[in-house]
Amino acid sequence: MSDVKGYYLLIIYIITAIGGGVVSTESLEFCSEAWVRCLQDYMTTHLDGLDLSGVTISFSEELTDPPAHLVHDGEDSAGWHYRITDGVLIVEAAPLRDADRRMVGDYDRVVVLARLRYTDPAIGPLAQAALDDGTLRYEGDFSLADERVAAALTGMHDYLADRTA
Fold it and tell me: Which domain range does residue 52 map to?
């Protein structure tokens, strides 16, 4: 996936904003434990009520060269992941190297994207530049996305962008 459209599809699938249930205006450091809890709260709220039995998917975002305090012992990168296994959601503040789908990117490049809403005209060119220069890449088969999960999380990126310091 090497185009801006692919980037948007990825973001719509995972970290996407605004909408019912989760209310927070606190500014949170990107990929911190508090930021991941906010992400988890959003996902839990927006997936609530969906019958995801039989659904097994995972996504991970791995950030290279992050601030040292975001790196867990024994790791050299930071990140977060979610896994849905037969309808059970788990969200953690660590990359998952065996996830079905992964986004791997330089922390300084990705944090800029994480702070921008989809309506910001800068997001497309910035994402494309990161893809082109190799500081952002996708791994895995993104065609396997569950449409119900993607639809439920449509607003997650903008929700988090509004809260990312």
Answer: 4-161
- pLDDT tens figures, 87-138: 999 999 999 999 999 999 999 999 999 999 999 999 999 999 999 999 999 9
Number of structural domains in the chain = 1
pLDDT per position as a tens digit, 125-152: 999 999 999 999 999 988 777 889 989 9
CB-based contact 89:82 (threshold 8 Å):
yes
Supply the CATH number for residue 117's domain. Answer: 3.30.1050.10
- Pick left, alpha or beta for residue 152 (phi over 0 → left; psi -120 to 50 → alpha; otherwise beta): alpha
Q: What is the pTM of this model?
A: 0.82
What is the largest distance, in Å, between two alpha-carbon atoms of the chain?
A: 41
